[in-house]
């Protein structure tokens, strides 16, 4: 089976990376991780990649005077490794428009809320403060606007009365780990396409797999 080549970008803990490493270790999973890049040398996630014998690179953004020169090196490194799909997994850098145009519909991200609600880096606290009863996670294509590209899949997760941002984050993270590998499976097996900024089944039909609720499994 020809597998889709993934490049994973991280900045920290790397639990989503680990979930993807686990998924890719299954024989019939249609994707493989060929490179993990961190913009931070001390990112814990690098250890997961090294343990799994996956190539790692550190491209420290602090060594660059501007965003575009960082993004140029990032771009070259990903191309050189034959990456076909870039997966942001806790990558705490905004990518330039230049970079995003180089990889049209080839960059995806996981965000810990039900987009378009609660964009940005403080979503769990904002969810708690808002009083909503359901949150979740979203896997989406990356476009120039932050946390706004076409949605591939979402999982709903309840917000419980005694939750604080940490307990909620922990519950949502479990769903993230299931959602991300599932979304990549849909892309790698050519099941989806984008039409009018919406993700649809390749044949034009709605597919049931796009929305599910792993927290209820
Ligand atoms: C996850 O909650 C992800 O949704 C967000 O950043 C966090 C990264 O966690 N974008 P990890 O590094 O994958 O453990």
Provide structural commentary.
There is one protein chain. The protein folds into 2 domains: about 1-105, Rossmann fold, CATH 3.40.50; about 110-215, Formyl transferase, N-terminal domain (Rossmann fold, 3-Layer(aba) Sandwich), CATH 3.40.50.170. About 30% of the residues lie in helices and about 25% in strands. It has 6 helices and 9 strands; from the N terminus they run βαβαβαβαβαββαββ. Helix 1 packs parallel to helix 6 and helix 5 crosses helix 6. The longest helix is centred in the C-terminal third of the chain and has 24 residues, at about 165-190. The chain is globular. 5-O-phosphono-beta-D-ribofuranosylamine (GRF) binds near residues 13, 90, 112 and 176.
CATH class of the largest domain: Alpha Beta
Q: What would CATH call the homologous superfamily of the largest domain?
A: Formyl transferase, N-terminal domain
Main sheet specs:
7 strands, mixed
* Rg value: 17 Å
- Spans of 5+ residues with little confidence (pLDDT < 50)? none
Largest beta sheet: strand ordering: 3-2-1-4-5-6-7
- Portion in helices: 25-40%
Write the CATH fold name of the largest domain.
Answer: Rossmann fold
CATH architecture of the largest domain: 3-Layer(aba) Sandwich
């Amino acid at each position: 089976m020809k597998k889709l080549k993934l490049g994973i970008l991280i900045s920290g803990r790397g639990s989503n990376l680990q979930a993807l490493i686990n998924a890719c270790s299954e024989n019939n999973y249609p994707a493989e991780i060929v490179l993990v890049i961190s913009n931070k040398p001390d990112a814990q996630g690098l250890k997961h990649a090294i343990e799994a014998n996956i190539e790692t690179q550190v491209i420290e953004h602090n060594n660059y005077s501007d965003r575009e020169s960082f993004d140029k090196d990032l771009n070259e490194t990903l191309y050189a490794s034959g990456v076909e799909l870039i997966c942001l997994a806790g990558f705490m850098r905004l990518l330039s428009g230049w970079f995003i145009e180089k990889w049209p519909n080839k960059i995806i991200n996981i965000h810990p809320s039900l987009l378009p609600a609660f964009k940005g880096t403080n979503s769990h606290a904002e969810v708690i403060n808002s009083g909503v009863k359901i949150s979740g996670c979203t896997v989406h294509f990356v476009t120039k606007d932050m946390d706004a590209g076409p949605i591939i899949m979402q999982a709903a997760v309840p917000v419980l009365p005694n939750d604080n941002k940490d307990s909620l984050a922990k519950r949502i993270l479990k769903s993230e780990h299931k959602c991300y590998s599932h979304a990549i499976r849909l892309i790698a097996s050519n099941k989806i396409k984008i039409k009018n900024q919406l993700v649809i089944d390749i044949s034009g039909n709605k597919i049931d797999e796009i929305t599910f609720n792993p927290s209820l499994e």
